[in-house]
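Exercise: predict the fold of this chain.
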Amino acid sequence: MKKLYVIAGCNGAGKTTASYTILPEILDCKEFVNADEIARGISPFQPEKVGIEAGRMMLKRIKNLLEAGESFAFETTLSTRSYVTFIEKATKLSYQVTCLFFLLDSEELAISRVATRVKEGGHHIPEEVIRRRYKSGLKNFFNLFLPRVDNWLFVNNSGDSYEIIAEGSMNEITVNNVLQWKELKEKYYGN
């Protein structure tokens, strides 16, 4: 079966780091499309200057993989609606679509993680962009993406080890941290 993995979460949530282990070793997914990695390939010393070009290349690569019927994963903050179309197309093409969402407890933690990444040579993201993406990514997860994917896993990656908050499919939801899941749904679902 063709599979599409959507690796989602705010900036600094650990999406890329987790993907390099989860995708090839656990999910047997060898194709990972990531705009940040594409940007580093174009301009290793100033990837932030080629972000738009890298984003276009990423969208083209996703389109080509869907048309070729390849299993693959892509990374996103889910802060825009743009990937809804790809997920709907993948579903029509008989892909099994799974979303892995990595949560951080706060916008401040996301900002701190990005600052640490910059000190280690990673790319900078303005604080206001991190805050906007944090909120819109959660809203879009609950309102746009959750109803459209076959399976999903919602992981808190704030601490030294991760915690699976909830997981589900079209027919079933298992909630492991009832309080946090309830708070997030109340804050972001339907808003």
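Check your answer against the key: The chain has one domain: 3-188.
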